[in-house]
């Protein structure tokens, strides 16, 4: 496949999509970016319209095919509701002659042994991945896909979700179990860099589920970093992942929101077996091929606190 220059981003205004789009737009020597958005979208984009065109279109296959005509690659960063729609998006991409479709994955990887509670949520993702694999296999090299497992989107999650153990506004912590369970995470900037890397070296990484990481850490390391950066001890409450799991399941049974986050954090920090925690070993990560840096925990924590 020839070098990728023209890139269409779908879901560009979302949590992950904003970061990816900014990184692509910041590299005008490498990429021409077009944003694809739904007619009913309330997303707004701050890029100059003459530099980053926005195509507002229905997500039917014919309309998307027309919108994607002339693009070299599609990067999908659609949220959960848009995941199944990626089959139509891939059909349109293939019909428009687009050679690479980067799936909206940014999860924990297909081999992750998630809690059974997530089976139903994970199913559409698996279907879309199978669809991409089949399409690539039948395309005689004309169509390829990539997906990137990032583990925990760590800087965003630490800032947004005190359930993860750190209330960065009120500077207090909740440590689950012993706080020593290790996990890896990828910053929003790291995720964007990984996508840039996929676009730049697509021939080497096509049709693969890549795994990346910015940091490896545990709650105790993070607490030490937060205390070091803020210059004082944080009040600590102790809890268990068993309790968190139970609270999440009770919320789910009552039809309340928030259960997904409780269960994600419980499975991330669950101690002992490394069964569900996500640790992408440094020597197994695809960082190097994607040109993606490893970051240090104190530096990441400092940036989080400066943005609070
Ligand atoms: N590993 C983790 O813990 C983690 C955490 C967060 C996200 N993620 C993953 O990252 C990806 C992006 O998530 P996000 O949180 O950034 O997404 P998001 O902010 O919820 O949504 C991103 C965009 O998706 C588009 N969209 C929404 N509903 C749609 C629909 N029904 N059909 C088509 N498009 C739709 C919208 O774009 P327009 O309005 O422009 O059309 C929206 O701005 C997902 O795969 C998500 O599962 C993983």
UniProtKB/TrEMBL annotation:
One of its GO terms (molecular function) is oxidoreductase activity. Keywords: NADP, Oxidoreductase. InterPro entries: NAD(P)-bd_dom_sf, NmrA-like, NmrA/Isoflavone_reductase-like, PCBER-like. Pfam families: NmrA. The keyword NADP applies. Residues 6-111 form the NmrA-like domain. This is NmrA-like domain-containing protein.
